[in-house]
C-alpha cells in the first residue's frame, strides 16, 4: 500500500484523483485550504480509514512521510486565480518549493499539475511540448501562467540539483462532475446558464477555440505518468485534441439541455488565447497508448447530470 499526498484534493480534479487512488488500494492524504475546493467533493471518502483530509495552505511547510505527491493545489479558473493574483503566484511558487522540499527529504516521487497556459496565446498550433510559448509576463493571466512556468522550472532544478524524482503534466481544459458551478469557467457557466434558462454569455465573437478533456481521461493519464519510466519526466501534454469554438460549445449545451436560453455576446477578456489544441503524440508514445476516450457529447451529458443534481 502506497501513501500518496494530493494537494488541492478537495478541488475538481483532485477529488476524482483521491477517489481513484483510494479505490486502487492506496492510502491517501489530501491537503486543501478550501479556497476553491469543497468538502462536498470528498464527503463520500471521509468514512474510508485510509483517507485523511487536512486543512492546510501549501504556501506553508508541511511534514509527512509519503511515497508519492500529486501537486494540484492552485485556483484554476481565471475568475478565481485573478481574485488575489499575488496569492496565486505564492501558491504556485512557494507551494512548489515546499512540496519539492518534502519530496527531497523523504525521497518521494512528485508530479506537478502544470497547464496548457504555459503556452499562453500560442503562435504554434497544435501545441507540442517543445513549444516554449507566447506568454504576457505582466497581464491579468500572468499570475497563473508565469506561476506555473516558474513551478516547472523549480521541478526541473530540484531534479537536476537534488535528484528528486519528478513528473510534469501540462493539462488542457478539463471538465466534469465536481467542477465548482460558480468558478466562471466556460463549461460550468454555459451549463448553469442553460439549466436556469438564463442568457448564455459568449465572450468575444465565440470563434476562439478550446479542446475539452473529460476528467476521467485526465486522471488515467496522470496515474500513468506517475508510474512511467523514471527517465520520462515530462513535460507531457494531457488533453483531448478535439477542438471546438465557444459558439459550438454553447450550441451543443443548449441542445443537450433542451434549453430555451439565448446566446448573448460580451467583451473578450484581456489576453484571452484565440486557440488551443494539444499535440498528444508524446503521451500516446510514452504512456502505453494512453488517449482520451470520452468525447464531448458523452462528457457533457455526465456533467449536465451533475449540475442538475445541484439545483
Ligand atoms: P480547483 O480550483 O477545483 O482545485 C484546486 C484546489 O486547490 C482547490 O480545492 C483549492 O481549494 C486548492 N488550493 C488552492 N490554493 C491552495 C493553497 N494555497 N493551499 C492548499 N490548497 C489550495 O481546480 P482544478 O480544475 O481541480 O485544478 C487542479 C489543478 O490542475 C490546478 O493546479 C490547475 O492549475 C491544474 N489544471 C487544471 C485544468 C482544468 O481545466 N481543470 C487545466 C490545466 C491545469
Ligand atoms: N519543506 C517542507 N516539508 C518537508 C521538508 C521541507 O515543507 O518535509 C519545506 C521547507 O520549509 C523549505 C522548502 O520545503 O522551505 C524547501 O526545502 P529544501 O530542503 O529544498 O530547502 P531549504 O530547507 O534548504 O530551504
Ligand atoms: N468564455 C465565454 N463565456 C463564459 C466563460 C468563458 O465565452 O461565460 C470563454 C473565455 O473567454 C475563453 C473560453 O471561453 O475564450 C474558455 O474560458 P475558460 O475560463 O473556461 O478557460 P481558459 O480561458 O483558461 O482556457
Automatic annotation (TrEMBL):
Biological processes per GO annotation: D-xylose metabolic process; UDP-D-xylose biosynthetic process
Cofactor: NAD(+)
Keywords from the named record: Cytoplasm, Decarboxylase, Lyase, NAD
Cellular component terms (Gene Ontology): cytoplasm
Domain spans labelled NAD-dependent epimerase/dehydratase: 4-228
Chief location category: cytoplasm
Gene3D superfamilies, A to Z: NAD(P)-binding Rossmann-like Domain
GO molecular function: NAD+ binding; UDP-glucuronate decarboxylase activity
Subcellular location: Cytoplasm
Designated name of the protein: NAD-dependent dehydratase
Amino acid at each position: 500500500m502506497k501513501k500518496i499526498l494530493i494537494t488541492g484534493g478537495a478541488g475538481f480534479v483532485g477529488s476524482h484523483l483521491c477517489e481513484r487512488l483510494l479505490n486502487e488500494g492506496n492510502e491517501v492524504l489530501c491537503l486543501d485550504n478550501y479556497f476553491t475546493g469543497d468538502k462536498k467533493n470528498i464527503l463520500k471518502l471521509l468514512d474510508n480509514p485510509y483517507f485523511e483530509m487536512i486543512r492546510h495552505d501549501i504556501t506553508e511547510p508541511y511534514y509527512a512521510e509519503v511515497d508519492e505527491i500529486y501537486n494540484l493545489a492552485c485556483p484554476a479558473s481565471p475568475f478565481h486565480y485573478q481574485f488575489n493574483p499575488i496569492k496565486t503566484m505564492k501558491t504556485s511558487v512557494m507551494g512548489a518549493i515546499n512540496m519539492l522540499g518534502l519530496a527531497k527529504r523523504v525521497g518521494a516521487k512528485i508530479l506537478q499539475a502544470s497547464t496548457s497556459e504555459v503556452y499562453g496565446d500560442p503562435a504554434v498550433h497544435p501545441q507540442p511540448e517543445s513549444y516554449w510559448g507566447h506568454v504576457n509576463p505582466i497581464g491579468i493571466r500572468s499570475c497563473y501562467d508565469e506561476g506555473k512556468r516558474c513551478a516547472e522550472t523549480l521541478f526541473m532544478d530540484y531534479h537536476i540539483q537534488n535528484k528528486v524524482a519528478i513528473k510534469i503534466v501540462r493539462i488542457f481544459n478539463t471538465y466534469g462532475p465536481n467542477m465548482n458551478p460558480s468558478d466562471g469557467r466556460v463549461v460550468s457557466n454555459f451549463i448553469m446558464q442553460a439549466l436556469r434558462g438564463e442568457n448564455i454569455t459568449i465572450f468575444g465573437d465565440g470563434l476562439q477555440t478550446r479542446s475539452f478533456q473529460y476528467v476521467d481521461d485526465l486522471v488515467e493519464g496522470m496515474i500513468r505518468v506517475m508510474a512511467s519510466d523514471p527517465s520520462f519526466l515530462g513535460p507531457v501534454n494531457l488533453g483531448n485534441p478535439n477542438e471546438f469554438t465557444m459558439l459550438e460549445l454553447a450550441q451543443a449545451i443548449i441542445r443537450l439541455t433542451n434549453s430555451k436560453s439565448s446566446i448573448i455576446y460580451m467583451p473578450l477578456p484581456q489576453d484571452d488565447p484565440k486557440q488551443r489544441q494539444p499535440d498528444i503524440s508524446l503521451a500516446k508514445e510514452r504512456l502505453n497508448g494512453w488517449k482520451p476516450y470520452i468525447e464531448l457529447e458523452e462528457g457533457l451529458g455526465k456533467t449536465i447530470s451533475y449540475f442538475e443534481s445541484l439545483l
